[in-house]
Structure formats: structure tokens, C-alpha cells
């Protein structure tokens, strides 16, 4: 007989509902799958010298691609480097430039050559320059060029294929673009951009902004801009004006 006045030594196991356990397993699987499909962060930074924007011929321009990886100390780091370097054509001169922590994220850095061109280009990443209207102000003539970033179809397809093989997708919310303009002219220049962060400050329209000789400015673009680039829509990134 069990003594009701004494603590019972009988151990009771909590009941587990089989259907709830199964639901938890499915939920965990879905969460892991979504994490894989969401893709990793990719940041492309392009550097431009103002004098190159006004040249007629095509010229190389330094650029860097930062790709999120699991860890800078991962045993798969060499494999990840090789995979990302394989995305670039030989003319891009792509090289591993290190690995760094950005907050809680590890980013693999790849340096490569983009190309500034006027009409056609076979480069992986191109900054097309287009002539804009010449303006007369105060008896002086000003010439303007509009800069448009483009990812070649071949480069974009190689990126999509690699990400697909790793159960990931290339999406605008994980892909950011920044362009740094260096004024190497003998005098000041003007620039104008829309819906952009200028050295970290947000602008709907910068208006015609003076960039002093030997100064530089970084423009970082929105998700909408990234989406247009990924879709091959050729959005205008920046207007640069100088005295003719």
C-alpha cells in the first residue's frame, strides 16, 4: 500500500505528444532551409577616378567584393576562396585580399578590376559612362557624364549557378553596391545622385554638390538600386560635371 503521507518514490515521465514532436521537427527543418535559401550578404565596392569618367577609351578601375562566409578560421576557407575566385574571368585579375569581421559577420574579401567603358565591354563588372547635356553657366561651359553600373550576363549566371549549388539565392536585399568617387582633376567638380547615402548620410537628391580637388566621397545605394542592377535595368548611379 502506498503511504499518502510520505513523498512518493514513483517517477513520472512527462507525456510527449507524437504529433507535436513531429511538428517541431518539421519547423526546425523549414527554418534551416529558409536560412540556407536566404543567401549570404554580398557587398560590392567600386572605386572611380573622376578623370577616367571623361576619357573616351575603356580603362580598368579597382573594385572589391566582400562575401559573407561562416568563419575566417573555417577549415573550408581555401575552398570558399577558390569557388568565389572562379566566378571571375581571367581579365578581372581577381585575388583574395583577406578576411575580416564586420560586427558578427565574417566577410571574405576579393579584389578585382572593373572596367569603365563608353559603349561596349566584355568585363565582368562595368561602369558605363554616357555623355549628358552640356550646360552654359556664367559664360562657362560644363560637360556632364552619367555613370551606370552593369554586371555582365555571363558573370551574373556564374554567380547564380554557384549560389544555387549551395542552396542559396542572389537577392537584392543581400546585395549592396557602393561607389567611391575620387576627384583627381585640377579643379573642383560637381556630382549629383538620387536616393543614396553620401558618406553615411541619407539623401533623396544631393543636388549639384561640389567635390573639392583631391577629395573623395562614397555613395551607397538602396535595395531598389541593387534590384535594378541584378535585373540588368542599368540604373543611373551618379552624374559628374566638370568645367570643359
Lay out the secondary structure:
Layout lengths: L17 H20 L4 E8 H4 L5 E11 L7 H9 L9 E8 L2 E13 L7 E7 L3 E3 L2 E12 L1 H13 L9 E8 L6 E4 L1 E5 L2 E5 L3 E3 L4 E6 L1 H8 L7 E6 L1
Parallel strand pairs: 1-8, 4-5
Antiparallel strand pairs: 1-2, 2-4, 3-4, 5-7, 6-7, 7-14, 8-13, 9-12, 9-14, 10-11, 10-13
Explain this structure:
The chain is of the alpha+beta class. It has one domain. It is 22% helix and 41% strand. The chain is built from five helices and 14 strands. The protein has helices at residues 18-37, 50-53, 77-85, 153-165, 223-230, and strands spanning 42-49, 59-69, 95-102, 105-117, 125-131, 135-137, 140-151, 175-182, 189-192, 194-198, 201-205, 209-211, 216-221, 238-243. Strands 1, 2, 3, 4, 5, 6, 7, 8, 9, 10, 11, 12, 13 and 14 form a 14-stranded mixed beta sheet that branches. The longest helix is centred in the first third of the chain and has 20 residues, at 18-37. The radius of gyration is 26 Å and the shape is elongated. 23% of the residues are buried. Mean pLDDT is 87; it is low at 26-38.
Amino acid at each position: 500500500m502506498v503511504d499518502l503521507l510520505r513523498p512518493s518514490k514513483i517517477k513520472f515521465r512527462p507525456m510527449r505528444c507524437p504529433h507535436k514532436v513531429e511538428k517541431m521537427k518539421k519547423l526546425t527543418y523549414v527554418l534551416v532551409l529558409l536560412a540556407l535559401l536566404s543567401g549570404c550578404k554580398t557587398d560590392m565596392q567600386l572605386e572611380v577616378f573622376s578623370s577616367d569618367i571623361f576619357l573616351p577609351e575603356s580603362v580598368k578601375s579597382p573594385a572589391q567584393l566582400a562575401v559573407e562566409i561562416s568563419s575566417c578560421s573555417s577549415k573550408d576557407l581555401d575552398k570558399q576562396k577558390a569557388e568565389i575566385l572562379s566566378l571571375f574571368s581571367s581579365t578581372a585579375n581577381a585575388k583574395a585580399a583577406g578576411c575580416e569581421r564586420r560586427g558578427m559577420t565574417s566577410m571574405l574579401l576579393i579584389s578585382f578590376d572593373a572596367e569603365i567603358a563608353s559603349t561596349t565591354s566584355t568585363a565582368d563588372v562595368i561602369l558605363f559612362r554616357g555623355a549628358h547635356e552640356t550646360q552654359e553657366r556664367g559664360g562657362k561651359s560644363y560637360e556632364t557624364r552619367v555613370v551606370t553600373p552593369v554586371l555582365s550576363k555571363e558573370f551574373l549566371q556564374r554567380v547564380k549557378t554557384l549560389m544555387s549549388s549551395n542552396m542559396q539565392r542572389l537577392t537584392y536585399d543581400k546585395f549592396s553596391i557602393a561607389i567611391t568617387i575620387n576627384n583627381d582633376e585640377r579643379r573642383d567638380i560637381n556630382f549629383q545622385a538620387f536616393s543614396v547615402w553620401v558618406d553615411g548620410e541619407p539623401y533623396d537628391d544631393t543636388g549639384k554638390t561640389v567635390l573639392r580637388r583631391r577629395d573623395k566621397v562614397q555613395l551607397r545605394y538602396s535595395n531598389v538600386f541593387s534590384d535594378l542592377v541584378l535585373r540588368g535595368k542599368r540604373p543611373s548611379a551618379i552624374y559628374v560635371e566638370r568645367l570643359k
